[in-house]
Design brief:
The chain is built from 8 helices and 6 strands, in the order αββααββαααααββ. The protein is an alpha+beta fold and 272 residues long. Strands 4-2-6-5 form a 4-stranded antiparallel beta sheet. Strands 1-3 form a two-stranded antiparallel sheet. It is globular and about 45 Å long.
Length: 272
């Protein structure tokens, strides 16, 4: 897995990621996001990282109800037509709480926002993911987004058009189809989330501390395997070709070191 990630990082620098889009043309001047700050409801939590979640969203469902200019890149049709988009790579804790808003942050540079808009087509969500989750993992936003985007680009997808035509489809059956599209993945390594009317919303892929896909903890949530799921029709997007094998020693290439600075990790849990 890690060799694949290095290869994806190599393929993804510089330029923008097309990923799960029928087409994507990010705006040359993305909107400047508002600051994302901790609050009484969403406080700073410096907790040790126990695992990770890679969250992807089914864009046709999001756009079915999204309104306003803040969603124009993802849903307006001028800048792209998307399937699954990257919600984010989230550090989890050892229980039901997770680290968040670990450090103060500035606005994500416009160049970094533009580079990631074909994966996460919302400048405000990019700012939110960096402030809430990325600051607990890396010292610079480009390091965090290069890593999360590399994992996102490594995913392959089942035939969503065929699944959307299924008259009966359960969350468990969808997870099995998704796992079969990804070598080494199992259905219990993900959680399928739905709207109140059982429409597919997101897929949460569970990862261990070594950033390998792993069985999800019981408290992760999601729809029960037996729950029926409906899928909003979306664009027909073929799986991209897998990247070329990585160079013999990719860490010697400038910019390819996964500098998830140990000093950027949340502090260790205090002794009691």
């Amino acid at each position: 897995m890690h060799k694949l990630i290095f290869a994806l990082l190599l393929a993804g620098m510089p330029g923008t990621a097309l990923a799960q889009a029928a087409y994507c043309s990010p705006p040359s001047q993305p909107a400047r996001p508002e600051p994302e700050l901790p609050s009484d409801k969403e406080p700073k939590r410096a907790l040790p990282i126990g695992s990770y979640t890679l969250a992807i969203s089914w864009s046709p469902q999001f756009c079915a109800s999204a309104k306003g200019p803040q969603n124009s890149v993802q849903c307006g049709g001028r800048n792209g037509k998307f399937g699954f988009t990257l919600h984010g790579l989230w550090p989890d804790g050892y229980g039901k709480e997770w680290p968040q808003y670990c450090r103060p942050t500035d606005i994500v540079p416009r160049a970094v926002i533009r580079q990631n808009m074909c994966a996460t087509p919302s400048a405000q969500l990019i700012q939110h993911e960096w402030a809430k989750h990325g600051t607990c993992m890396a010292t610079k936003p480009e390091l965090y987004f290069n890593l999360s985007r590399a994992f996102y680009e490594s995913l392959r997808y089942p035939d969503m058009a065929a699944l959307s035509r299924r008259k009966t489809l359960t969350a468990g059956q969808f997870a099995e189809a998704f796992a079969q599209a990804n070598k080494g993945m199992k259905a219990d390594m993900m959680r399928v989330t739905t709207t109140r009317d059982n429409m597919l919303s997101e897929v949460w892929l569970c990862m261990d501390r070594q950033l390998e896909f792993a069985r999800c903890p019981a408290h992760q949530g999601g729809a029960p395997d037996s729950a029926y799921v409906k899928i909003a029709p979306g664009p027909n997007i073929l799986n991209p070709r897998r990247p070329v094998p990585p160079p013999a020693n990719p860490t010697k290439r400038p910019g390819l070191i996964l500098d998830l600075d140990p000093n950027a990790q949340p502090p260790a849990e205090p002794r009691r």
